Structures are given as C-alpha cells and as structure tokens.
Amino acid sequence: MKRREFINKTFIGLPMLMSNPSLLWGTQKTNAMMRPTPRSVIVIGAGISGLAAAKKLQENGFTVTVLEAQDRIGGRLRTNRTLGVAFDEGASWIHGVTGNPITTLAQQAGMTTFFTDSSSRKAYDIGGALINETTLDSTETAYNNMLTTLRNSGSLTQSFETVFNNLYPTEATNRLWKFFLSTFMTFDRGDLNNTSSLYYNEGLKFGGEERISTNGYDTIPTYLATGLNIQLNQRVSSINYTNSTVAVTHNGTTSQADYVLVTVPLGVLKNNAIAFTPALPTTKQTAIQKVGMNCVNKFLLTWNTAFWDNEQYIIYTPETRDKFNYFVNVKRFHPSVNALMTFAYADYGRQTETMTDAQVIADIMAHLRDIYGNSIPEPTNMLRTRWHTNENTYGSYAYTAIETQMQHFEDLATTINNKVFFAGEHTHIDYFSTAHGAYLSGIREADKMIALATLPVELATFEAYAKENEVTLKWTTEAERNTKYFTIQQSRDGQTFIDIGNVNAKGANAVYDFVDKKPFLGINYYRLKVNDIDEEVSYSKIISVVVDASFADIKIFPTIISDNLNIATQNGKITDVQVLNMAGQTLLHQKYNNENYNAIISIAHLPTGIYIVKAANNRGEMRTSKIFKN
Ligand SMILES: Cc1cc2nc3c(=O)[nH]c(=O)nc-3n(C[C@H](O)[C@H](O)[C@H](O)COP(=O)(O)OP(=O)(O)OC[C@H]3O[C@@H](n4cnc5c(N)ncnc54)[C@H](O)[C@@H]3O)c2cc1C
C-alpha cells in the first residue's frame, strides 16, 4: 500500500529570512579558492540522517565523531534476518523511485528492491466476503474526493476525525472506509482524533514505482558508515553550547567540538532525554511539542506452506480500525518464503506493545481464519516491533497533529548560534516521516556547516531575473579564476540549499546563463558552489528573486540592478510606473511619455524588502508585479 500516495505538492507561505545574515550577504574578497576550514563535529545518532551528514562532512575535511546510543547503526533502518529473510522493522519501501535520492543510494549500497503493485490486491470483509474491485475503486475515488472537500472545513484546533465525522457520518462507520482511512491516512498521519484537519495532506512525494527492499534497508546505513568514526553504546544525556565549542556528555564523559548535529528522533526530544544548556529556544520547544509522533508497528509471520491468495496485498476490513487490516504477501518477492507482513497503527499499534506474542498471533489468525477458514495452520514464527516504547525513538515518525503548523518543521530544523544543528526526518518540511526526508535533512545540515566554514567566492556580477515561471541566473567570473564547474543551488529559506544544476566553466571573465524552470512561489534564494580545478570548493554570496503567484499573467519584468529599478514590458510602451511598499503606500509614481518598452528608475537607498510594481502601457493595460530588493 502506498504511503503518501495522495500527498500533493503544496507551497507553504513565504519562507523565513535567514537567521545568519553574515552568511547571506557575505562578500569577503578572496582571490585564492578556499577549502572549508577544518572543523570538528559531533553527530548524535547513527541513523540515515546522521550518517549522511557525517559522510559528507568527512569528505569535506571535517573531523567527525558519531555517537550512537545503541549497539548498532541504522536507527529506524533496521533489518532483522533471524528467520532467514530480511524483515525491515522500520522503513521497507522507497516511496516513489523517480528523483528519490534513496534510489541512487540503494544502487550504490547494493540494496535490491521489488515493485509492489498496489493494483494486485484482494479485499475481504467480515465473514470472508470478497469485496469486488468496483466497490474498492469507487470507495477509493470517494476517499480521494473527500480529501479535497475536508480541507475546506478544517481548522487548526479541530481533529481530522471531528471534521470527518461531521461531514461523513455514514462513511465513519463503514468498514471499507475505515480501511482506507487507516492505511492511507493513519499509517502516515497518526491517530485521526489527533491528526490536523488542515494539514493532513501536506508534503511532497516522489513519482514512480513504490519499491520494497528485498535484502534489507540496513544495507544503506552500512554503506554510508564505511570509514566513519562511530562510537556505539554512547547515549548522549546533555549538550552545553554556552562556550565557543559545544560540550556533549555521553555515558559520563564529556566531548567537545566546534559543531554538534542532533539527529535523535522527535520522540526522544519530546521525552527530554537530552538536557540542553542554555535551554532550547521557545520556538524549538513549541515545535517539539506540537508536531505529532505516530506509532506504526510491523509483524512478520511465517508458515510451512502458503494458504493465501497470490496477490501482493490481502486486505481485511475489521470493525476495529488500524488493526491488522492488510497483509503484504512476502512470497511475491521471496518465492521460497511463506510469509506475510502486517501492521498495527496509532492507538491500536500502541496497544499491541502490551500484548504477548500469543495474544498478537491469536488476533492476526482470527482475521486470516475469517478469510481462509479454520483449517489454516498456525504460524511457525513471528517477528514484531515495539516502536512506541523503544527508548531510542518513542514512536515511528513525525506527523501533522492538531495545532501543528508547517512552520514547526522549519523550527525543528533551525540552527542555534551557528553551533547546534538539527537533522532527522522530523526536520524536513516536505519529506518528513520518510527515509529520503531523513537523508536529505542530513545533507542539508552538512551543507550548512560546510558553507559556514567556507569563505565566499567573489564573482564579478551575479544576478537573478524572474520571468513568468522561470528564473534566469546570470553571472560573470573574475579574471584569474581557475574554475572547473559551478553547481547552482536553490533554497526557499536562504539556509537549506539543494543542487539544481551544473554549468561547466568556460574560463576567466566568462558570462554564464542558467534558466531554472522550477522556482518556488515567493522568494527564491540562489547561490553558486564553485569547484576549482583542484576540486576545492567555495560558495558565492546568496541572491534572491521573487516569483509571484500571478506572474504567468504579468507582462512586465521588473529587475533591480545596483540601485536602479528596471522595468521592461512585453507589449506596448510604458506610460506610467508606480512603486509601492507592502503596506500599499506609494513610494514613487512616474509618468512616461509613451517613449519606450523599457523604463529605468533610480531608487537609491531603498531598504531591503518586497515591493509592488505597477506599470501601464500605451495600450491601456495595467500590470502588477513584485520584486525583492536585496
Ligand atoms: C515502522 C516504520 C515504517 C517505516 N516505513 C518507511 C518506508 O517504508 N519508507 C520510508 O521512506 N520511510 C519509512 N519509515 C521512516 C524512516 O524509517 C525514518 O524516517 C528514517 O529512518 C529516520 O532516520 P533518522 O536519521 O531521522 O532517525 P533514526 O534512524 O531514528 O536515527 C536516530 C538515531 O539516534 C539514536 N539515538 C536516540 N537517542 C540517542 C541519544 N540520546 N544519544 C545517542 N544516540 C541516540 C537512535 O538510536 C538512532 O540510531 C518508517 C519508519 C518506521 C518506524
């Protein structure tokens, strides 16, 4: 079944301005390319986020120590092979292989995968009654329609369940609806009575097939950990960031480093397992409280012979929601293994943690007997998880609970004093709750530290222009710069950058153009990562450009170069220009005598901020746009 199947691309308001202006506007002149100044880092947690960061930092010359509380690495990428088959207790799937960084990582790590086709399914109601495909399809369609409808009635303080029960009283008691709500919503978003009725569908997803790991997801942490200094059985109890270096206490010992990266799960932060001195900022504490921590438990059962349908998924619709309501047929990807994997979520998931193995098996077998009859055999073995009471996680992954705001994910990721950094799935606003979100968060934090420790490179010019839904970047190099290539990096908050393209260097004093077709709505930040011929890395200053929601309709193109506001029209000559601030006050109003397609207005000393530009042409058309002044 596809977690995140229905999560749509959404934009989450204008991003925060950067908390570290020196990094944003740094223009320190340097003719020689600089490596990052070697720094020491302690990474807390050897899950995928911590390992990804540690690997990247070590590759960039940092001295890295990873402290892990458990006697093993991998965190929630944890594979149990005691029954002779790889049972992933945490992540199993690559959720959407297209563009997903885990796809490449899996290939590098030797993780084999299998396409779990969600159309290969059979569904049974109580009494073993087969639910036909037409009913399944129509209910699924109605479920998807409900997702859009409910959003309009949601509020910050009401649960998904409250709003759903009001709008859909009949469906609330329908067993097939309970199944869809459970596997498509609760699996991702926790107890429905605590799930946000506003943000239940927030986040991004990758396209392409859902592929399940067949030889174990732990291959990825094993690959990432190669060559790293990892100290196991080191439980961190406190972090003191009062002084210039950070002091980390673990097992009664205190270690110091320039930076610390905290990757422990949200559940661990919620339980105050690590004491911070000074206390964490209030915004961070609020975010820790408000973002929810789900509970998903997984169960693998084996038999001597298989008695079930040869489909990928066997669905069962019990009265109790979230209780062993579907089975992944492991035999489809391990033909010699007679095994089924099933799940328990949220409240029922937590309840299973208090049950004995015999009680759990009895409940699972009751469902299978209802489908396949009383003569089916008892399982030979069972493996199970207890993520809620596990002191290394206290839950499975983060979700949008009542009163969670999307800003809280940004707050969880915010760096403190350029010394204490945070990664982990719960810190990724777009991909929280996934392995790829965790991985990307680790890379993000490593990039932040590398940028902090790297002197900025000076370019002769560096400009950004927004035109409809495209952003063009133009820059020229200085003489004597032996650049090899430029990596263009984009960010929505000026802190977390992702690579969006490369340009090969053409030599000194060259002019470069790069058209990015995927800007974010609102402010877009760009910087260049510059590799010289010795593969030494430096970064340019950061520039920004605003992409407006209605840009596609606008036929004027304002840009700011030095202190000049340049406005160009596509149709007609400019007759009238107004510049307003965001409060709507007119700062400048100038008329033109039908002269030109371009207008240039001098606006010296205009403070940094967003401005509204209105321009009319000689065809009587008036257009409005926005521009960000650095
Ligand atoms: C049941 C389940 C199913 C999932 N299914 C999928 C899936 O199919 N696909 C997918 O993409 N994602 C899935 N996920 C999510 C994915 O596994 C996680 O998002 C990801 O592994 C989290 O990585 P992380 O680095 O953020 O945290 P973790 O992997 O949890 O790493 C944190 C590390 O910190 C350590 N630690 C904790 N406290 C301390 C301390 N005090 N001192 C030192 N170390 C400490 C922990 O032991 C752990 O090793 C699933 C998760 C679960 C639980």
Structure description:
The chain has 630 residues and is an alpha+beta fold. The protein has four domains: 40-78 and 220-292 and 395-454, 3-Layer(bba) Sandwich (FAD/NAD(P)-binding domain), CATH 3.50.50; 115-193 and 296-384, Alpha-Beta Complex (Polyamine Oxidase, Chain A, domain 2); 456-549, Immunoglobulin-like, CATH 2.60.40; 552-629, Sandwich (Immunoglobulin-like), CATH 2.60.40. The protein is 23% helix and 31% strand. It is built from 14 helices and 38 strands. Strands 8-7-18-19-20-17-21 form a seven-stranded mixed beta sheet, with helices on both faces. Strands 10-2-1-14-23 form a five-stranded parallel beta sheet, with helices on one face. Strands 26, 27, 29, 30 and 31 form a five-stranded antiparallel beta sheet that branches. Strand 11 and strand 12 form a beta hairpin. Helix 2 packs parallel to helix 8 and helix 2 runs parallel beside helix 14. The longest helix is centred in the N-terminal third of the chain and has 21 residues, at 133-153. It is globular, with a radius of gyration of 27 Å. The two termini are 47 Å apart. The chain binds flavin-adenine dinucleotide. Residues 44-50, 67-70, 75-77, 90-93, 95, 235-236, 263-265, 268, 273-274, 296, 298, 387, 392-393, 396-397, 424-425, 433-436, 438 line the site of flavin-adenine dinucleotide.
